[in-house]
Amino acid sequence: MTDFFAALGLVLAIEGLLFAGFPSAAKRASENIVATPDQTLRLIGVASAVLGVFIVWIVRG
């Protein structure tokens, strides 16, 4: 469970740096996400989840 919270903290830190460093790019990315069809977002979400699990599996392997 501590690994989960460490990973969550890392995600929040990276997102925070992106929003702090490039706020206009973050706004444009958010607008693009809203305009993207649901099916495409689902596909990207599943692919990201699979890639994330694979990376953790390789690193922790």
Secondary-structure-derived class:
mainly alpha
Question: Strand tally, please?
Answer: 0
CA radius of gyration: 14 Å
Instruction: Compute the average pLDDT.
Output: 94
- Helices, by number, come to 3
Proportion in helices = over 70%
Proportion of residues in β-strands = under 5%
**Shape, principal axes of CA atoms:** flat
Main sheet properties: none
- Unreliable stretches (pLDDT < 50, length at least 5) are none
Query: How many angstroms does the end-to-end distance come to?
Result: 17 Å
N-to-C order of helices and strands: HHH
Notes on the protein architecture:
The chain has 61 residues and is an all-alpha fold. The longest helix has 23 residues, at 38-60. The model has no long low-confidence stretch (mean pLDDT 94). The chain contains 3 helices and no strands. It is flat and about 35 Å long. Helix 1 (2-21) crosses helix 2. It has helices spanning 2-21, 23-35, 38-60.
Summarize the structure.
The protein has helices at about 1-20, 25-35, 40-60. It is an all-alpha fold and about 60 residues long.
